[in-house]
Structures are given as structure tokens and as C-alpha cells.
Specification:
This protein starts with 13 loop residues before the first helix and ends with a helix. Helix 2 packs across helix 13 and helix 3 runs parallel beside helix 7. It has about 300 residues and is an all-alpha fold. The protein contains 13 helices and no strands. It is globular and about 75 Å long.
Amino acid sequence: MAAEPGLPHRAWWTPYLFLAPGLVTVVLFSLWPFVNTVVLSFTDARILRGGTFVGFDNYTRALTDPDFWTAARNSVLYLLVVVPCLVLLPLALAVLVQAKVPGIGFFRSALYTPVIASAVVVGLIWQWVLRSDGLVNTVFLKLRLVCEPVPFLTDSGMLLASAMAVTVWKGLGYYMVFYLAALGNVPASLHEAASLDGAGPVRRFIRITIPQVKPMMLLVGTLSAISALRVFTEIYILGGESGGPGGGARTLPFLIRQVGLGFAGETGYASAVSLLLFLLTLVFSLLGRRLARGDEG
């Protein structure tokens, strides 16, 4: 077909020149590593040597490994505790800081500060706060609320709960911004009409605000669920390389790092655990998408 008058002729492959850098980046740093992980999961590869095909042996080993089930339990527990907190608490904060009053910008910035802070710095600060001679235990002992220091970092259950608290604290400001954007799209006329009908702030929040921001709540739930299943830094900083006493606070990413690194790292087995973590993440992502479709229906 002849080119239109006044317009320069372009070859059919011209748009692909603009797409090429992005496509090459995706293939090299996303698609190829994923495919390579799938291939390695069916081998007995190690860090310093290639592997041979072993079929589903790595998956069988993972499903019969107590360490895997401990890590999987901790990851799912992490998700079940952290996700509701990161869905509801940022929404409450967003409602509080939405008001246009003098100085509210300072509080918005203060609440967002943990988001831009380094995860390592945040972990070290919380480690200092929660250790046996740290700030929290010192206050508890001075007020005689406890007889001995609370083992925040030396008990597996307490360590996992402490890591959850750090994750929630660091994520509050991030998801608060999501909700502020959603609340900005809620028609003010709805609240005005409800006020004229005698509805108080709590009732307006339940009957108007929550239904209007429900799609954003589902999005935040999906994103925070994926992040919760990938948590590593908080547990590593608070619990050390072992993942707490006896590795009792390890999550699946922590287990993958532990079995896959070092001179004796089992790359094949770590790849199999990575694929199982991917499937677990996919299940929760599809569940969130299904809930979103049901809400639209």
C-alpha cells in the first residue's frame, strides 16, 4: 500500500527497534532465568558443577523435608497475619491524614519515611529496639511489666512476630498512598448526602468509604500477599543467618538462600523450592484476581 502524501515511509520493522531494548531486557533478566530455574529443578546441579537429570527427585525431597514444611508454614502464617494488617491499617491512616488541616503534610511525610528508608537500616534499628537489653525490654523492666527480658529475637515464634511487625510498620506508608489516591476519587456528595440523613463518621466509613475503595483493597491485598511470601530481609537481620533458633523462623525465600548458596550449595534443590514458592504465590495471586472479578460482578 502506498504511503500517504507528506508522511515519511517506515519499514514494517521500525516499531520493533523501539521495543527491542525492553524485550531483550525482559528475556535476559526475567524469562531466561525462569526457564533456567525450571530446568535446574530437575537436576542435581550444585554451585561448582553441572547436574544430571533426576526427574522429580528434588520435588519429592522437598515435600518430605521437615525444613521445607516449617518454612512453608512460616510463609503462609506470615501472609495470613501481615496481609489483613496492610489492607486495613493503611486505609485507616489514609482516612485520618486525608483531612486538609494545617501541618497534615508533615504527618504524611513522617508516615511515609519508613518506606524510603533502607530495609537493612530499618532491621538494625528494630534489632536494637527489641534485643534483650534494648529499648522495649528496658522500658518493660523499669515499669516492672515483666520479670525478665522478653525473648523477641531469641524465640522462634517471637522472632517471626517481630519480623511481621517490622514488615507492617514499613509498609503502612506505602499502601497509605494507594488509599489516598482511591479516597480522592470518592464523590464528596455521597458523604454529604449521608450526613444529611444522620449517618455518623463510622457509618459513613462502613457504608460509603469501604465500598468505594474495595477494588483498591483487593489490589493492596494481592500486592502485600506477594511481598509477604517473598519476605527475607527482616528475618535475616533480626534472626541472623540461621533464621532464628534452630532455623524455626525461616521462610521459603530464606530456605532457598540457605540451601542454594555456598560451596556446597544445592542449586537443583533450591530451584525446585523456588518453583514451589512460585506456585504458592501464583495460587494467592489468582485468588485475589478471582475475588476482584467477583466484586466487579
